[in-house]
Amino acid sequence: MPLQKLNYDRIAADYNQRYPSEAERKDVAQAVFSLASRVTNPHVLEVGVGTGRWLAALRSLTPHLFGLDFSLGMLAQSQARDSSLRLMRGSATRLPLESTRFDLVYCVDAIHHFVDTSAFVSEAFRLLKPGGTLAVIGADPHSGADEWYIYNYFEGVLATDLKRYPSVPALHAAMQAVGFSQPETRQVENILNIHHGRDVLTEPYIKKNSSSQLALLSDAVYDAGIEKIETEISKARDEPLTFCTDLHVLMTMGVKEK
């Protein structure tokens, strides 16, 4: 059965609720900034630009900032954030841009939405100048290193993520297959949050439209997960129940040889 696709136009206006402040995910922002700053006045493309928070943060480095997304709603959010961004609608597997134009192509928390990882990697290779870098930033649920209470309480979420996300070895193989030299992966962020008792119900990532994991669920399955959490909270009388988020955000990079 094919995986259900999320309509980001429907949730675009609410999506940034997952980031209570612009300082959220500063380690990821710094990782992208460091990559872009390797080249003077770089040409940068973000694929799956979403609401534009990562791309707009590069404004002090260069005016050559391009963003692509399939969702018109997300592109509208990006344009509202920074009207100078050069935005376009398109598919990650068929990028509507000329070859050897960019110094950096990257995506953040987006690779699991691309219908063909290998096709995206091949397109990124085509667009990069010799010496340019592709960076894929996000989680790898295949690693077994993460703990996320969402997987425990909402039916089918982990199974769906295992189908959607490429593993790090799969990314390395896809990069090497098209000519990237010696792909490498490092951790750029550890999202660590502990919530006790009913406090978990106020955290941003438990809101239905704040992540694709929950937004993909039917209302009935989502409500059942919330009910399961509330039931277990009420049963824990001696001390508050603990809900853990311990996610390792990885950056996998490949360089196009000169």
Describe the protein.
The protein has 258 residues and is α/β, with parallel strands linked by helices. Helices cover 33% and strands 25% of the residues. The protein contains ten helices and eight strands. It has helices spanning 8-11, 26-36, 53-56, 72-81, 117-127, 149-153, 157-164, 168-178, 212-215, 219-235; strands at residues 44-47, 65-69, 86-89, 102-108, 128-138, 147-148, 180-196, 242-256. Strands 1, 2, 3, 4, 5, 6, 7 and 8 form an eight-stranded mixed β-sheet that branches. α5 (117-127) crosses α8. The protein is globular and about 65 Å long.
Outline the fold blueprint:
Blueprint: H1 8-11, H2 26-36, E1 44-47, H3 53-56, E2 65-69, H4 72-81, E3 86-89, E4 102-108, H5 117-127, E5 128-138, E6 147-148, H6 149-153, H7 157-164, H8 168-178, E7 180-196, H9 212-215, H10 219-235, E8 242-256
Task: Supply the key terms.
258 residues; alpha/beta; globular
N/C terminus separation:
42 Å
**Rg value:** 19 Å
Q: Count the beta strands.
A: 8
H/E element order: HHEHEHEEHEEHHHEHHE
Task: Give the structural class.
Answer: alpha/beta
Overall shape: it is globular
Arithmetic mean of pLDDT: 92
Number of helices: 10
